[in-house]
Design a protein that fits this description.
Trna Endonuclease, Chain: A, domain 1; single chain
Amino acid sequence: MAISLKESRAVTEMAKVLYDFLPASGRNIWKGHITFKTVAQDVGVGDFWREGSKEPAIASLLENTLEYRRHLFEKLILSIVREGLRYRQKKKDPVRPEEIETLNGLIVEVGFKFPSLWDRDFLESLKIDGTSRAAKIVEQELVTEKVKANIESDFVRSREQLRSQFYELSVQVNRQSAGLEFEKLLNKLFELYGLSPRGPFRVRGEQIDGSFELDNEVYLLEAKWESNKIPEAPLLVFKGKVEGKSSFTRGVFIALNGFTGEALDSITRGKQANFFLMDGYDIVSILEGRVRLDFLMRIKLRRLAEEGRIFVSAKEIL
């Protein structure tokens, strides 16, 4: 399809912009010499290159590519620009951002827009020389690393504060009070790992110790800090709480002193578990920085899904 007068005018202007990007052609004996002619041949439009005056030859190349092999127009322009960047750099006459911006406007006029030529970082890189650009990149990376280090330092400091609070609670005489404070500590721990926790709440007469999100799934939370291991009965009650919400609700039952062997066996025998368990060793491993909370939970979930095991200790995982 013949190109329009508007496109023809834009192509003529494009030829002016691209004129200095590459030499027109070179002798065949010059191995590796990049020219408009060699680029056109590599792209697959070499038959459109016309020997003679350079600017009309470029315009003819672009116009014929648009008219007869439109699908190769982007490849042709990007190849010219890519090789032109190298050529102009060698000539100590780097391509200027305003040249690319003018070219972008003309490309839009013929119905195209090439994202790589509009990339802000690319255009910014044309404003300074390679040495200055490299120095700027290094400076930015140093700032980024410093920010990362500060974030990591804040994270570790917050986790260590929670660890100290946990050990203080472990020797507190009033165990009921310690249990309530432990729920608050868990809330802070989930917040630290970005799990969007919710504190204790009641639903239809049921007390829920809290909830959180992991990988876009909502989990109900039950937390116990009792002197003995948890038997089957509390696990059955929690299972009912989880099942009573929705078919896709899940749960986590945390008992610092663990669970009886009978409870672990009977809660899964002939039943489909909709929650998994954590104990004191798990919590201490997290607070001591030996394993991430979210990583440990994902491993437990996978073992539950693959093996039907409701409890897998961090001892086994680590």
